[in-house]
Amino acid sequence: xxxxxxxxxxxxxxxxxxxxxxxxxxxxxxxxxxxxxxxxxxxxxxxxxxxxxxxxxxxxxxxxxxxxxxxxxxxxxxxxxxxxxxxxxxxxxxxxxxxxxxxxxxxxxxxxxxxxxxxxxxxxxxxxxxxxxxxxxxxxxxxxxxxxxxxxxxxxxxxxxxxxxxxxxxxxxxxxxxxxxxxxxxxxxxxxxxxxxxxxxxxxxxxxxxxxxxxxxxxxxxxxxxxxxxxxxxxxxxxxxxxxxxxxxxxxxxxxxxxxxxxxxxxxxxxxxxxxxxxxxxxxxxxxxxxxxxxxxxxxxxxxxxxxxxxxxxxxxxxxxxxxxxxxxxxxxxxxxxxxxxxxxxxxxxxxxxxxxxxxxxxxxxxxxxxxxxxxxxxxxxxxxxxxxxxxxxxxxxxxxxxxxxxxxxxxxxxxxxxxxxxxxxxxxxxxxxxxxxxxxxxxxxxxxxxxxxxx
Length: 456
Hints:
Strand content: 15-25%
Mean pLDDT: 88
Strand order of the largest sheet: 6-7-9-8-10-11-14-15
Structural class: alpha/beta
Shape: globular
Number of strands: 15
């Protein structure tokens, strides 16, 4: 049976082994830095030059198994496809987090920067590798902070194991306490702007709402900051609670205590997975004044993944036999997913479905969002792009409408020309992730609809 790479609502390359590096005193860390930084540079230059077989020799045994030469090549080329030509190393950083030694290399390309995080074990072998984007050369509309708004740096979960950098955006000249929205990202390892390629949808929303007298709080996702520190054992028990829910609740509590924010008017804006989880975040401690759902779903995550995979197979130029083999693989995974609820916790923690630990899905099955929504009576605004090819207007958006049709405090808005990121695109690559490589901005219409809902 041929294997197919499963598609999730995520744009992320993250590979970890279970080897843990050894921390130590500041002197030892200085020594480790002087040893590891040249190794990290060598690895990056070989990776950049396409010398994948040589790169694999830097890996520990587990990484060689998880990320052989062909998979490393596929992951790196997919990551750099939108970046243009290599320019230079912008900066390097040595960190020891949770007992892990890592070197971060910030590589500058023509249109998009990449952060390469290399995690090292005690024998100086690469035991974890993580790619993420950073915008070094700004693209699209000018992203200089407008003169009529200001931003305050904050820490989410200050004093906890997982402190996260965040920003509160305010209009500059306002009187009294104002409403605030907490921005919660979709799947994957994303920064506070929810950067995907050259686009920064959460920064668009934050700056746009500030012009309407509404504050926002956005922050780096836990997997963005600490993803490289998770061991294989950690990931077996990893759920959306650790990924998203806990930090969103901490963000809400921080906002409610801020002297410039009205604690009775704190809302949640959840995008994609964040939209799916918004009602659960609300119920489990967010206690929001209302919810704005952007491209969320009431279906299970594995149902959406099934559709995404089938659509991907159908869109590819494959012979009938290969397509049938791929579809059979997806059907087998879907069948396993529907049985997760009957697994014990131990069974789920040691099984994978659609390439994800089954326990992740079991936790979501046990906390059904549709049931939560029906039990609530919060004002809600459901937003969907008609050209979204990840979350579907005919299935997901319609299910929101059908489920909430009897609730008078729920509003719906479908945007004919917008995609999953609420950006407009009509080029030849429409309907593919290549749309996200083109610089764009969330239209004012979306910002105004959100602002009007909050101001009610």
